[in-house]
Amino acid sequence: MIEAESILIPDAEALLAAAFVASGVPNAAAQSVAVALVAAEAEGQVGHGFSRLADYVAQIESGKIVADAVPALSVRAPASLHVDAGHGLAYPALDLAIEHGARVARDTGVAVVSISRSHHAGALSVQVDRIAQQGLIGLMVANTPAAMAPWGGTTAFYGTNPIAFSAPRAGRPPLVIDLSLSRVARGKIMNAKKTGQPIPEGWALDAQGRPTTDPDAALAGSMVPIGDAKGTALALMVEVLAAAFTGAAGSAAMSSFLAPDGPPPGAGQFLLMIKPQSDGFAARLETLLSQIAAMDDVRLPGDRRLAALRYASAHGLQVPKKYIATAQQIAQAVRA
Prior knowledge:
Layout: E1 4-7, H1 9-22, H2 27-42, H3 53-62, E2 72-77, E3 80-84, H4 90-108, E4 110-118, H5 124-132, E5 137-142, E6 163-169, E7 172-179, H6 186-195, E8 204-205, E9 211-212, H7 215-220, E10 222-223, H8 229-245, E11 267-274, H9 281-293, H10 303-315, E12 317-320, H11 321-335
Parallel strand pairs: 3-4
Antiparallel strand pairs: 1-12, 2-3, 4-11, 5-6, 5-11, 6-7, 8-9, 8-10
């Protein structure tokens, strides 16, 4: 049984921000990272929340993450932007990408933003939700270190390469869809390892291609893709957009998001923002979604996420005590 501690969202953001500032991250960037990690925790994506703090800090200390990196924006075409994350944390680069990409999309109808020399992008749902909150349709993909073999193979080559989509809704929270192309997000296996829990069979294979419930063996082996061969085909599509298009490292060449040793991973992210051009878009979207929601035993994608966010907003987060203690120790020890 994991012992958890309740913490309110503002307090969680302040604690994580203090830990990053104490580790050498400038205040604005530390706030950006803290908000993203807490948002992931609040929506139930615990593998992208507090559990990432110690890994990030260890990589900052080793120099694998450049703590004071300043992302740089360049314009490649009227509706095409690029952000060089400078081997820093991904979240300040994503802030810059969304701020300027949304402005371009509102002016031109569409914006494409590529990000290179980046790092772990966390829960993509958090980022595409921000796009939809500005009245835009959002699509984001990201490549991650090799964790999934091409269909029929046993050697990890693709990352779990998540895909996220969002659409604005009139008077309601946006529709948000976020999925990893492995059967489950790799962060869940990482979290199971850190909390000493087994994983369900069917999530991953060991290095010999055998099903495993051991998170260590899973992390040393490969993830099971969604939809078998279709999942790895989608992973290839993400690799084209997030690596070949952006100029970032390919998944197979990328170092770990977890370990402090090795060179910076140089990950890539790709964002597409679209301004709905028709006044009838909102009504048509609601018709579509209401038809789905009216079906027996059917829920819309993202309903569980919204319920988790409402609960966290009202009652706070339930975070393993050891993660909160780690954050407190980092924030206090370095400043002392």
